[in-house]
Design goal:
The chain is of the alpha/beta class. The protein has one domain: NAD(P)-binding Rossmann-like Domain (Rossmann fold, 3-Layer(aba) Sandwich), CATH 3.40.50.720. It is built from seven helices and seven strands; from the N terminus they run βαβαβαβαβαβααβ.
């Protein structure tokens, strides 16, 4: 299938490893120009090489997306370098595990900033550029826990579910602008975070392939997905057992 996004400009945050990197590589493989960012310069360089190998033109920026000023910097750098911004994939590392009554106020504030407010800032900065082009795709990477909370991940469950409610509202607000807003909700995949949870005994079971996940996100950012908006797509190997 031709996804119709060759030449589009995409910003993928927290993309030096794991699902963010896999998404950047998938978009590069579709012919997108891709901006990636992360805190670690070495891993970011390796991710940039992978995007280029897949066929994408890439700009790598060392930055921490959870810094309140970072979203504005990243969007401005994207537009300065490539002249436009069409696709935003918002991603950030998850908070530490903890049960509901064990988390502190500081823990909650950190999780809300990283896994809710950061994405709000990114979308707010990106949308004016998408509106000017009459086309845009926003995909926010969250977790299957927005459908079925994970007992040991109270912080992630809470912040990411708040983002889902906000994104659903934003999708309605942007429905007349040619801009879609969706969530990609991974279950366990073969990433450093999930490996650590398995080693600590907090998770057992099979892990998905990050490259498959990246291709799902690329579809949500595609031309054929223009009528898919306000959706939260589970990519979890049937892990969520509920019907909604």
């Amino acid at each position: 299938m031709d996804l119709g996004i060759a030449g589009r400009v995409a910003l993928v945050t927290a993309s030096s490893k794991g699902l963010g990197r896999a998404t950047a590589v998938a978009l590069g493989g579709e012919g997108c120009k891709v901006v990636i960012c992360a805190r670690g310069e070495e891993a970011l360089g390796q991710a940039a090489a992978a995007v280029e190998e897949a066929g994408g033109d890439v700009l790598a920026i060392v930055d921490d997306v959870t810094d309140p000023e970072a979203p504005a910097r990243l969007v401005a750098s994207t537009v300065e370098h490539f002249g436009r911004l069409d696709i935003l994939v918002g991603n950030a590392g998850g908070p530490p595990p903890g049960r509901a009554l064990e988390v502190s106020d500081d823990d909650v504030a950190w999780a809300v900033n990283a896994n809710f407010t950061t994405s709000v800032r990114l979308v707010r900065e990106a949308v004016p550029h998408m509106r000017s082009g009459g086309w845009g795709r926003v995909c926010l990477i969250t977790s299957s826990s927005i459908k079925q909370p994970i007992p040991t991940l109270a912080l992630s469950n809470s912040a990411r579910t708040a983002l889902w409610a906000w994104a659903k509202t934003a999708a309605q607000d942007l429905s007349g602008d040619g801009i879609t807003v969706n969530l990609a909700c991974p279950g366990p995949h073969d990433t450093d975070r999930m490996k650590a949870l398995k080693e600590s005994g907090q998770f057992t079971g099979p892990l998905g392939d990050p490259s498959d996940f990246g291709k799902v996100v690329a579809f949500l950012c595609s031309e054929p997905a223009r009528f898919v908006s306000g959706a939260a797509l589970q990519v979890d190997g049937a892990g969520v057992v509920g019907l909604l």
